[in-house]
Amino acid sequence: MSGESTPNVSARRSKRLRDWVINIVLILVIFGAVQWWKARPLATGAAPPLVGVTLDGQAFDLAALAGRPVLVHFWASWCPVCGLMDGAVAAIAQDHAVVSVAMQSGGPRELSRYMAEAGHAFPVIADPTGQIAHRWGVVGVPATFVVDSSGRIHDAVVGIATQPGLRWRLWRADPASPESAPEPAAFRQPEQGFLSKQSR
Q1: 100 in Cβ contact with 73 (< 8 Å)
Q2: Do residues 55 and 137 both lie within one domain?
Q3: Domain containing 10: what range?
Q4: pLDDT digit string (tens) for 19-71?
Q5: CB-neighbour burial class of residue 58 (10 A; exposed 0-12, middle 13-18, buried 19+)
């Protein structure tokens, strides 16, 4: 009896393992399909222009960051999921070029208060009308882009992303060490009339 039951136990275990593998593969396929569907509207190819003034009054131009990968992160103060990524974005900003765009979250005054209360310290450009988000094809947040050293969108993800996942995407966009690239002058004091020029 024991000799006959052993193959049956092994067969059941093999079937159970096979079912687990099939289920995991199906979940991954469905997840990938959902991510692809959500990411369809996002901009691809050459990164759209991204010019603005950060909350601390510095002018920003994405084009000035050519030569190194850049993390462009769209978020909103009213988005609870976005808050789960704040720590990752802040940590990556310590050793990579990062700019974030706050979509339809008020003006600089409201956002400065929000950032201070939340204890965040990464570059933020206010997008109260959603104009920048529209240019990048963002219809929901969080949405995160990796722009490579040539100014092209290398990767994009809609929804929450982990710090290791974002760092891996940045590494894929440019495997060279960030320290090997010269420090760009993306942030500078705004020229007189900068805001009025952008608003026209």
Answers
A1: yes
A2: yes
A3: 1-40
A4: 666 666 544 444 444 444 445 569 999 999 999 999 999 999 999 999 999 99
A5: middle
Total count of residues recorded for the chain = 200
What H or E segment, with its residue span, contains residue 51?
Answer: strand 51-53
- Provide the terminal-to-terminal Cα distance of the chain, rounded to the nearest Å: 86
Per-residue pLDDT, 15: 73
Specify the residue for token string 């003006």: 107
Are 87 and 170 part of one and the same domain?
yes
How is residue 141 annotated by DSSP?
A: S
Pairing of the two strands 124-127 and 51-53? unpaired
Placement of tokens 């805001």 in the chain: 195
Note whether residue 80 is domain-resident. Answer: yes
Per DSSP bridges, beta strands 143-147 and 70-75 are antiparallel
Place of tokens 């103060």: 77
